[in-house]
């Protein structure tokens, strides 16, 4: 993210000393922040490609010691990883689309002046922002609806949040009403206006919240843990959780026996395998971010500034 | 003509129907009836159609005299705690599910009528009853009202060994002519010598993070005391108050090790990975209570560790140890297979699950099929060479679907037989009888070299105590703050933050933190001791 530095100019068009000091402070703080973010990342990469013996001895800090890609080879050649990755891609792609479209559909009517249900619906959406039914009632409701072990249980619950809906509503309200009125005059109905006028004008909004939704769906694991009975439907985060938090050093639940053998023989180390798994899971979403960056910068202030 | 075509069409349809029905009509079915039920377990037992699970299905089909239609409802093993709590709270259960929860929670579900009380089917528990009758299991699993709501996870032991042992850097000891200590005084001397040889090191490390196997607990047990309430073989006592001499002796000894920088100060808060690192990079040379199953992890690059019997107590007696096996049938009261009271096939399920405690089934899931996965030599079962001599026996056992592989769960929660589990761990380097050698059975070493039953922590074989909800709450309210206070104080004594001269006055403060005398009175009254 670029930081714009405001230069205050004195009447003689020279940069003041105060401005320079301020710039230096900003740059120093940002360097520290970048270091705080980058150092753990460098360590993860270093451990994931280092020699297992060096890892066991604690010799690896920010740079690799030796070079060994065995951890990557073992993880990437396990078919279960690709099943989990495929599932995550499906949940992310479908979930992002569902989240963005449904939120927009929820918010657009609330942005139209004179909509008679605007007040009641706004209250209806506001209450769950502050009060939640809780985990157990939610679980019972999902079970009762037959959502357990289905694809859609990973998509629908939580795809629309009231908070996001209100932000969408604020943005839609900033689109001039005259455009809608002229479209009515030309014979367009509400759905045509929404699809052909409102949505194209909301690219920054949709891209920003699409990115947020994509990250949310990419990181899903808790719903998988409580609602999915079939491990072939698990997302990739369940793999990470198993390796890192639970430290059950197998990928598939049946046990990747070659990993146990490799640990016992010293060809692999659990720490190296865990870090390799972190890299494999992190890379796809990292790859997407630069492409969405321009929308992110534009969209991050949406709904926060009036006029 | 049209009528003719219609008739031909109807005839063709009828023939098609007959053809599709024919396979059903003519196929051989083993039994006329089918038993259908669902099981919630954390691994689908038929995941790979292994030899062992296939054999198990055949045996169960034959025993039940019905075809089996089991729906395996999977629960992630690594999320079982959170997922199981939610599952149990929701109240919508499969016919059978594995409940890993404290006894009080299971009792509440049972008393609410959600679980089957096995005592209503007592006459049908042909194979489970001998387990219940052994080792006070019935008292352990039953509620105050005498109900038993589940089939506890079983374990068959053959001796009193365990897997947590003292381990020493064999290569360093041999290189420097050091002797493995057999008393606490010798232990201190050798640690001091190691510090002189390697000033940058902290000779005594902490091994793995392991819950209650913390550093001072090990030494307290060796000296026949404990930091909390425990059963001492005769009655329940409170260690910090009732074992003054042993407790103070332990603190004094550990304080001596600490003040001379012989104990690694980070050992009590390190992660497993840090523990391994310190065992191979020369920071630690002695680790009390290290899990012998992980020895391969730290024997690398010329580093060699050897296990040995723990030093004797300060009085020269055999010390107690955690996690001892027992040559009995052991049942867990917080890990049970339970039957939903809403199931439509309860009597069949009772019979089905009861049979899991038959020795035939236990042998099948632990040892496999004779002649295929194991053989019997002089009355002793041994895994085939392909498994026993593999670089990783556990990995070699997995394709067969054997329970000791730790990654296969054939059947439904059959009991573990520790003899089989020893067979899938490679031998360990040990020091005993004055020499270093490889000992085959990692579970049995402490039984043979730490005087067997004498070293069992009596609290682990305490008589079961039945507490109702109020009494259980009273116990928690007293013991939780006391444990926290004692743990903090113990560390202060060890590190010198609190002088040992204040020990006696500190003991006087215990009762004000938690009314342990009242708790001891309650617990001892339950076992008939005054």
Q: Give me the count of strands of chain A.
A: 0
Task: Tally the structural domains of chain A.
Answer: 2
Number of helices of chain B: 22
Number of helices of chain A: 14
Question: Between the first and last Cα atoms of chain A, what is the distance in angstroms?
Answer: 25 Å
Indicate the structural class of chain B: alpha/beta
The shape of chain A is: globular
Describe the structure.
The complex is a heterodimer of chains A (307) and B (530). With 307 residues, chain A is mainly α. Chain A has 2 domains: 1-48; 69-307, MetI-like fold (Orthogonal Bundle). Helix content of chain A is 67%, strand content 0%. Chain A has 14 helices and no strands. In chain A, helix 4 (79-111) crosses helix 7 (162-174), helix 10 packs antiparallel against helix 14 (270-299) and helix 12 crosses helix 14. The longest helix of chain A is centred in the N-terminal third of the chain and has 33 residues, at 79-111. Chain A is globular and about 75 Å long. Chain B has 22 helices and 15 strands. Chain B has a 6-stranded mixed sheet with strand order 2-1-3-10-4-13, with helices on both faces. Chain B has a 5-stranded mixed sheet with strand order 8-5-9-14-15. By secondary structure, chain B is an alpha/beta fold. The termini of chain B are far apart. The relative contact order of chain B is 0.15. Chain B folds into 2 domains: 34-152 and 332-367, 3-Layer(aba) Sandwich (D-Maltodextrin-Binding Protein, domain 2); 164-322 and 428-460 and 468-526, D-Maltodextrin-Binding Protein, domain 2, CATH 3.40.190. Residues 18-28 of chain B have low confidence and may be disordered. Chain B has helices spanning 2-26, 51-64, 80-90, 103-111, 128-133, 137-141, 170-175, 184-197, 215-222, 239-242, 244-259, 272-280, 295-298, 346-354, 359-367, 385-388, 393-397, 418-422, 445-449, 469-495, 503-513, 516-526; strands at 34-41, 67-74, 96-99, 151-156, 164-169, 229-231, 236-238, 286-291, 305-308, 329-339, 374-377, 380-383, 416-417, 428-432, 435-439. Helices cover 41% and strands 15% of the residues of chain B. At the A-B interface, helix 6, helix 11, helix 12 and helix 13 of A face helix 3, helix 12, helix 13 and helix 17 of B.
